[in-house]
Amino acid sequence: MPRGAAALSWAGALLRGARTSRRSLASSVDLTRARAHDHAALREELLVFDQLLTRAEAQTLADDVAAVMDELPMREEHFDGLIARHREFHTGVDAPMWTPRSRAAVARVRTTVAELHFPALQPQLHVLELPNGAAILPHFDSVKFSGSITVGINLNAPAVLRFTDGGSVAELHIDPGSVYIMSGLARYVYKHEVLPIRGLRRFALIQRDPGPCSHLPVWLQYLHGIFPLPPTSDELLAEYRKKRHDDFMRTKESE
Ligand SMILES: O=C(O)CCC(=O)C(=O)O
Ligand SMILES: [Fe+2]
């Protein structure tokens, strides 16, 4: 699969970098506590890119985000109960808030996602601030309102994203300016969380492909979240997990 080849070379280069320069600020994917039979899939489905944005671009993106964020009140709880203190807003890739440098940086991320043959991203961006000490509890992204990939640009402060499936744990250590893409196992089988942020506030700029209900108007999406119609997210997740398991068993049998 062309996507796999490209993705592996990125991930491989990154892992080599992490091994050879432990003191550098390079982001890394830590699979040492992940179950062995998930390693190959996670190397393709939990990607991190350290060289996609320049430091200047990461700083400009953070400055553009801060200018909007600083006008918003800090919220104590998110409606889904997963995030305590945070601020957030939604905007478009071409919104006037972005300076040309930021717009070019986001466009490059989107081009890379397209070149890796992932599904097309929606034009909306979800921008999130986690202040010092804030975290996001373990969850699956909605299988109704988001599609099969989540793309995050990490800004302003380092962060640790932890992925867990039972006792199997993978961790993404990301620096400001790093971009990650979660798909497959990392999106549907492993729950993810953001460990408490330490020090500076951290921004995340999240992009997703559409889910089956993304076309609904926003007010209906909220209602839909409150009164779930079948199939529920749990049923869709269970279906996906079963499919992944069956695929895995088939691969084993043919080995
Ligand atoms: O902060 C992040 O990078 C991830 C946020 C997240 O999990 C979400 O928006 O669903
Ligand atoms: Fe999430």
Taking pLDDT < 50 over at least 5 consecutive residues as the criterion, the unreliable ranges are 1-24
What is the first-to-last residue Cα distance? 18 Å
Report the radius of gyration as a whole number of Å: 18 Å
Label the overall shape: globular
Oligomer: single chain
Work out the strand percent. Answer: 25-35%
Count helical runs.
Answer: 7
Extended strand count:
11
**Arithmetic mean pLDDT:** 84
Query: Structural class, from secondary structure content?
Result: alpha+beta
Helix proportion of residues, in percent? 25-40%
Largest sheet: 6 strands, antiparallel
Give the strand line-up of the largest sheet: 2-9-6-11-4-3
Give helix and strand order, one letter per element, not per position.
HEHEHEHEEEEEEHEEHH
Cofactors, ions, other ligands: 2-oxoglutaric acid, fe (ii) ion
